[in-house]
Specification:
single chain, alpha/beta, 339 residues
């Protein structure tokens, strides 16, 4: 038996209530984090093990979350492959996207030394955290990393030129997906060796291509990352945002839990997803701007869902917005702990 509800549910054990954590909980809405960023840029926090560990654990104390997620970024894998990434106040920028390169895969050289700061952060988290606080590791999904590496930061989030490239340069795209996946496998090994309890694959741009294309071209690479995590006994959460009815093609080969975006009702997702897989999600993060009476109505529906579907982890359908009222986040965690 697990004392922590996240560890219980992620390992398919009974829990008296739904576990709760939220994507992008490490930072963004936390006053302590915002105060820290006034003096220290994002990239510098990420590179400093003590600061990154502190931010990782802030949501446990400040918001009452049941699990911590590593404070890092999905773009550390493109960086480790040699793609230049610059962080500024508006997010990441890519001075030289690979769409302009004739043979982009030939430009990539994986350098694991770019990931040592993550190992240091995880070691520091182990020193700072309480014994029953689980830590979630993660990486970007293969397609999501590919979109950024090829297309840079696309304000439309449609990555039209990248999708065109998948159809017109399939072999080159597969070579890039192979490089991303091999680096991600090494990254999983590193995180597992430094104490994580579960692993999430953030496929934020699954919806930019058809489910059919994703299933044939990208999903085999996701399965490799999942298989690597399972070598260490880690349960895997897969978040394919915008996947829609493609959810029905997922199986135990892909993950242990599927994180559902806010565009698909959780009850519909439960009918679509293989019953052997647990679910996570999927409250619209913008509901957290509503009055607490409205938030409570949504939570009551999720409580009913949990009673019938105990393999479910409360989360949002995407990450927290940076100006989300902290009191409303706390209201959610406290309400769920009371039910």
């Amino acid at each position: 038996m697990y004392s922590n509800p996240f560890l219980a549910v992620i390992n398919h054990q009974p829990a008296c209530r739904p576990p709760v954590w939220m994507m992008r909980q490490a930072g963004r809405v936390l006053p302590r984090y915002r105060a820290l960023t006034k003096a220290t840029p994002f990239r510098s926090i990420m590179a400093d093990a003590k600061l990154a560990a502190e931010v990782t654990l802030m949501p446990i104390d400040d918001m009452g979350m049941d699990a911590a997620i590593l404070f890092s970024d999905i773009l550390v894998i493109p960086e480790a492959l040699g793609v230049q990434v610059e962080w500024n106040g508006n997010g990441p920028a890519f001075p030289r996207p690979l769409l302009g390169v004739a043979q982009p895969a030939s430009e990539l050289r994986f350098d694991a030394s770019h990931l040592t700061h993550v190992a240091d952060t995880l070691d520091e988290i182990q020193r700072q955290k309480s014994n029953d606080t689980p830590v979630i590791g993660f990486c970007g999904g293969p397609l999501t990393c590919l979109c950024y590496m090829l297309g840079g930061r696309d304000g439309s989030l449609q990555f039209t030129e990248v999708v065109r490239y998948l159809y017109t340069h399939r072999e080159e795209a597969l070579q890039l997906l192979e490089a991303i996946t091999s680096a991600s496998e090494a990254y999983v090994h590193l995180q597992a060796e430094h104490g994580i309890d579960a692993f999430q694959i953030f496929e934020s741009f699954a919806g930019v291509i058809s489910a059919e294309l994703y299933g044939t071209m990208v999903l085999p690479f996701v399965r490799r990352i999942t298989a690597t995590a399972r070598q260490h006994g880690l349960p895997v959460i897969f978040f394919p945002k915008g996947f829609g009815t493609g959810l029905q093609m997922l199986s135990k080969s892909d993950c242990d839990f599927v994180s559902i975006d806010w565009q698909t009702p959780i009850t519909v997702a439960r009918r679509l997803v293989d019953c052997a897989l647990g679910l996570q999600g999927n409250m619209d993060p913008r509901i957290l701007f509503a009055p607490q009476t409205v938030i409570r109505q949504h939570l009551e529906g999720y409580a009913d869902f949990f009673r019938e579907n105990p393999d479910w982890i409360f989360n949002l359908g995407h990450g927290l917005h940076k100006d989300t009222p902290l009191d409303n986040v706390r209201f959610v965690t406290e309400w769920l702990k009371r039910i």
